[in-house]
């Protein structure tokens, strides 16, 4: 990308795509202010940050291959964390953005941390939103225990009703199991247990094999302490008080001291997605974290 194009790119909103390994990775660049690179689905996460946040941040929303359309039938089958980090860096070079805060939501928080560990000169801050220390059996059991002990009867009834429809969803669209599961787990994911997340997912490609490998194996076994020791920049761990999808906030207690500089913030009226559930509070927290 030429210097002229790079300068123009930072002055306007635009979108595009990059082909990598048989996947078409989409990016969306929106807003003005502090640069924040958000890894996941460009379209999904653009919907999770309300319009007013574009007055405070310059967002670079990036797909990874789990949310990308295949360009042909020869897409590779490397779904490692290293591959994800390579793809983030490849799209970053295309965009020409030099230094930024990197934000990952849920399992994407591990991707953000791994990128910062590999490319420390590119990253000013790391933000992990609704991320547990791992997706290990221990952490999943902690999430189950918290839901069983603290969720009210209404939330549990909504979850049971929604999960009863999951098999039919998958049968109707078997290639998008990950999306169907997240939608039907809404009572564990949102502060409002009846929130309908389906519009957020409209038109989002899903590659289940990517999620099976990353969430089912890589993030199950991830050594978060080893990654934390490699991070020199400030880290923000933003969690929701009503997030029953992941292990509770105190699951980070023994790991926080490993980071050189870390803040943990729990949003009282949020579940798994504080940027959408408490957008003003989240935006203020994020801006204060980046500016200080």
From TrEMBL:
Transmembrane segments: none annotated. Keywords: Hydrolase. It comes from the Bacteria. This is Alpha/beta hydrolase. GO terms for molecular function: hydrolase activity. InterPro entries: AB_hydrolase_1 (IPR000073), AB_hydrolase_fold (IPR029058), AB_hydrolase_sf (IPR050266). The keyword Hydrolase applies. It comes from Martelella lutilitoris. Residues 40-279 form the AB hydrolase-1 domain. It holds the Pfam family Abhydrolase_1. One of its GO terms (cellular component) is membrane. The keyword Hydrolase applies.
């Amino acid at each position: 990308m030429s210097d002229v194009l790079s300068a123009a790119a930072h002055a306007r909103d635009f979108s595009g795509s990059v082909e990598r390994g048989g996947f078409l990775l989409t990016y969306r660049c929106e807003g003005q202010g502090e640069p924040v690179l958000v890894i996941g689905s460009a379209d999904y996460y653009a919907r999770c940050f309300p319009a007013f946040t574009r007055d405070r941040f310059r967002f670079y929303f990036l797909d990874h291959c789990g949310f990308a359309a295949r360009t042909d039938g020869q897409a590779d089958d490397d779904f490692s964390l290293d591959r994800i980090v390579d793809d983030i860096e490849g799209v970053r070079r295309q965009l020409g953005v030099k230094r930024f805060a990197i934000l990952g939501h849920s399992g994407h928080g591990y991707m953000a941390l791994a990128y910062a560990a590999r490319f420390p000169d590119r990253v000013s801050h790391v933000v992990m939103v609704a991320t547990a220390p791992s997706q290990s059996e221990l952490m999943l059991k902690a999430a189950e225990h918290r839901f069983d002990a603290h969720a009210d009867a209404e939330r549990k009834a909504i979850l049971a009703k929604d999960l009863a429809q999951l098999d039919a969803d998958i049968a109707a669209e078997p290639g998008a199991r990950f999306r169907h599961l997240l939608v039907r787990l809404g009572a564990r994911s949102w502060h409002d247990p009846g929130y309908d997340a389906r519009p957020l997912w409209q038109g989002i490609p899903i590659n289940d094999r990517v999620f099976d490998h990353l969430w089912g194996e890589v993030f199950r076994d991830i050594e978060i302490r080893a990654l934390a020791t490699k991070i020199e920049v400030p880290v923000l761990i933003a969690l929701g008080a009503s997030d029953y999808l992941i292990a509770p906030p105190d699951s980070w207690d023994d790991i926080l001291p490993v980071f050189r500089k870390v803040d943990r913030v729990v949003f009282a009226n949020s579940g798994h997605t504080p940027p959408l559930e408490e957008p003003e509070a989240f935006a203020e927290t994020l801006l204060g974290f980046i500016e200080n």
